[in-house]
Amino acid sequence: MENKSEQGLKQTQRALMCVYAGLMLFALIWVILGEFSQANFIGIWQGETGLLFVCQIIFQLGTLALIPLALRLFKFSKIHHSLVNDTTPNHAKLLLYGVLRMDMLLLPMIINLMLYYFFMVPGFGYMAIVLFLSSLFIVPTIEKCKAEITEKQA
Predict the structure, then answer these.
(1) CB 116: neighbour CB atoms within 10 A?
(2) How far apart are CA 83 and CA 61, in angstroms?
(3) What is the DSSP-derived secondary structure letter of residue 152?
(4) pLDDT along the chain (154 residues), means of 10
(5) Dihedral (C-alpha) 22, 24, 28, 31: value to the nearest 10 degrees?
(6) 141-to-4, 70, 135 alpha-carbon distances in Å
(7) Cα–Cα distance for residue pair 69/134, rounded to 1 Å
(8) Do 113 and 125 form a contact (C-beta atoms < 8 A)?
(9) Backbone phi, then psi, for 60, in 5-degree steps?
C-alpha cells in the first residue's frame, strides 16, 4: 500500500513539474522572441497612457497580493488538513493546490512579461523578475511534495 502511495506521489510530482517547466518555457520563449527577433508586438501599446495606467495598477497590486498568498497557500489550516487527509492514491488535492499555487505566480509573471514587451515599461519587467524569483521557492521537488502532505505544519 505504501508503495502505491509513493508511486502516486511521484506521478503527481512529475505532473506538477511538467506544469512548472511548461510555464517557464513559455515565458522563456516570450523573452527570446522579445529580445532576439524583430517581432511585431514589441512596443505596440507605447502611446496608450490610459491603458498603461490601468495595467500598472492592476498588475502591481495583483503581484504584491499574490506573492505572499501563493507562498503561504499550503500553510492555511483548511488547505493543509485537506492535503494531509487526502487518501487518493494519486494525491489529487496536492495536484490541484500545487497547480493553483504555480498559476498564482507564473501566469502573472507571463502576463507581466507580455505587458513589458507591449508597453516597453521596465516596471512590468521588474514585476516579472520578482515573480520568477518567488517561483523558485515553489519548485515541486519530491521532497517538497512529501513535506506538504505530512502532518507537521510550520
Answers:
(1) 22
(2) 29
(3) -
(4) 75 95 96 87 89 95 95 93 86 93 96 95 95 96 90 62
(5) 130
(6) 19, 17, 13
(7) 11
(8) yes
(9) -70, -45
Cell triple for 77: 489550516
Residue appearing with cell numbers 506521478:
11
Q: C-alpha cell of 152?
A: 507537521
Q: Residue 144 corresponds to which amino acid?
A: K
The answer to whether 104 and 69 have CB atoms below 8 angstroms apart is: yes
Helix (H) or strand (E) holding 120: none
The residue type found at 12 is T
Looking from the CA of 24 toward its CB, the CA atoms found within 13 Å total: 16
Distances from the Cα of 36 to the Cα of 60, 107, 128, 130, angstroms = 27, 22, 18, 22
Q: Are 140 and 13 in contact (CB under 8 A)?
A: yes
